[in-house]
Amino acid sequence: MTSTLTPVRKRSALTKGQLPKTAPYIVLAVALILGAAILALIGFNAFGWGLVSAILFAAGLVGWSLVVEGSRKAKDKLATCLVVGSFLIALLPLVSVIWTVLVNGLPGLLDPGFLTTSMNGVTGAFDNKTVEQGAPLLGGIYHAIVGTLLITVLATLISVPVGLLTAIYLVEYGQDRALARAITFFVDVMTGIPSIVAGLFAAAAFFAVVGPGTKTGAVAAVALSVLMIPVVVRSSEEMLKIVPNELREAAYALGVRKWRTILKVVLPTAISGIASGITLAIARVIGETAPILVTAGFATTINTNVFSGWMASLPTFIYTQILNPTSPSNPDPSSERAWGAALVLIILVMLLNLGARLVASLFAPKTGR
Amino acid sequence: MTTTSLTKSRGAGHTGDKVFSAATLAAGCLILAVLFGVALFLVVQAIPALVAPADQIQGGEGFFTYIWPLVIGTLIAAVIALVIATPLAIGVALFISHFAPRNLASGLGYVVDLLAAIPSVVYGAWGVAFLAKEISPSYDWLAKNMGWLPIFQGPASATGKTILTAGIVLAVMVLPIITSLTREIFLQTPKLHEEAALALGATRWEMIRMTVLPFGRPGIISAVMLGLGRALGETMAVALVLSSGALTASLIQTGNQTIAAEIALNFPEASGLKVNTLIAAGLVLFVITLGVNVIARGIISRHKEFSGAN
């Protein structure tokens, strides 16, 4: 009789064995060693090693889990491997782009006079001399920096008032009217306009109004505004929406007019978010190439007048130096200049992005808590 | 005295109110006018190319023969980009929303957003200087081993400047767009649904398949469509990376061209009817991307109360 009381160990799906906590590390070590061994047979390179090891790691961990833990846990492990793997793959181009720009861009940036001279008078003959006789690299990006700054500032001056006022209309006056809904919808549609179409629009408009072949910095600024306005509207609208209604009602209760309430109460409360949104919008358009390419042409000289004459900018400078080197027989000096300009452009964009975060935290309303 | 000053101040305030609300209304209408103007000016400048005799258009066989291969090339490049970017983006979004440690997640999201901050011309330069060179050996391998597929037909381009390379660069560029939208949607999955699934004994992956993915499906679709809109209109990556040519089925030979790159490469030196032809091409691109975006936004607004992509 007593024998029936002996506990019988039943295996159920819920209490199946588990992998030890160190399992991923063990599999990783084995995968790395095996991967190195396989790569040693077919010729070693770091990228291939990482790839083969990752595949071995995933296969090993999932296989082990399948044997010990069953198919559900194994599927979970597989999904985790794939998700983490996709994140690592997404990081590859970011690291690769920044590395490529740094390595190729530093020599160009460190050339004396690179930031303070233009390409005026720099011809293929000078570049040939640089390559063949080791003469110093001539030419720089001063004209492109000037052009980029002028065009971007003008585009900002156009976009910010229009975008901000529209956002105020949508939040404070629109009240879900048909017009407000139409504006919201078309602003969303506008964010999807291809940048080159925005450039063509500005070009076509100025060709029709001013005269065929009108290409100036102002045309480029209009093209950039078409791209920038929807971004400003969206971000400002979001920021105005989160201003608490109590603040508005308190102002109204004190007898303050609506427009003064908006100017003195609503805007100051939301200003940090609005400013950072505008900075991000500037960062987005400062790197746009296509619209400037079709609207401002490319100049090699310094032009500080946005209303007449072709104008250079950093993105178009990079584009033309790569595609049409100054000296077709010796493209190396041109590509050095292009990468130097690319480095400057990336630094500008990153500074703007950092600045947006800084602005957001510096001007954030004091909550007092 | 006090009454008059009160009346006066009311009058002044009233004017201020009127001026201010009129200004905001004008700004809103200006945006509508601009969008309308985009369409109008493109149409006006495109008409000469559409009505011109066939032999005066580049290629000599009329506008539609000219634009047709470009439309197909644009679609090929965009489809390659989406095929690569969509699964990756969903994976990255899931990683940030459900797999990464909570305190790291926002920082990792910022890293992915940095991908979107890099200017397109830098991607183009990277594609032609780094990616095309590194990837061309694998095109040789594809041509040798999978050449029986029409899309991998050899001989592979020696420079690697093919539509497949351009598509990969485009994939990198649309990845952050799809990621940030889908991430927002995944984060909005009701916590109770997730916890209910976990409480029933689901593994993390089963929880995601049962709650997060069904909840986010309309959001994923619209995010992919917004990515498609971006990929269709992206210019620089293709203009720099692709060495263009006639329409070919093989993805690893030189050839094919997209509308945006065709405009960027030819517009600066164009004159006369050529300008109108390129603007007409831009109009076609505008109509295609407009359609894609309207559909995507329509899906988002229909599911507005559920998704965070608005």
TrEMBL record, chain A:
Residues 145-360 form the ABC transmembrane type-1 domain. It is a multi-pass membrane protein. The keyword Iron does not apply. It is found in: Cell membrane. NCBIfam families: 3a0107s02c. Belongs to the binding-protein-dependent transport system permease family. CysTW subfamily. This is Phosphate transport system permease protein PstA. The gene is pstA.
TrEMBL record, chain B:
It holds the Pfam family BPD_transp_1. Signal peptide: none annotated. It is found in: Cell membrane. The chain crosses the membrane at residues 20-47, 67-96, 108-132, 163-182, 275-296. The keyword Lyase does not apply. Gene3D superfamilies: MetI-like (1.10.3720.10). It is a multi-pass membrane protein. Keywords: Cell membrane, Membrane, Phosphate transport, Transmembrane, Transmembrane helix, Transport. Residues 71-296 form the ABC transmembrane type-1 domain. InterPro entries: MetI-like, MetI-like_sf, Phosphate_PstC, Phosphate_Transport_Permease. Part of the binding-protein-dependent transport system for phosphate; probably responsible for the translocation of the substrate across the membrane. Belongs to the binding-protein-dependent transport system permease family. CysTW subfamily. This is Phosphate transport system permease protein.
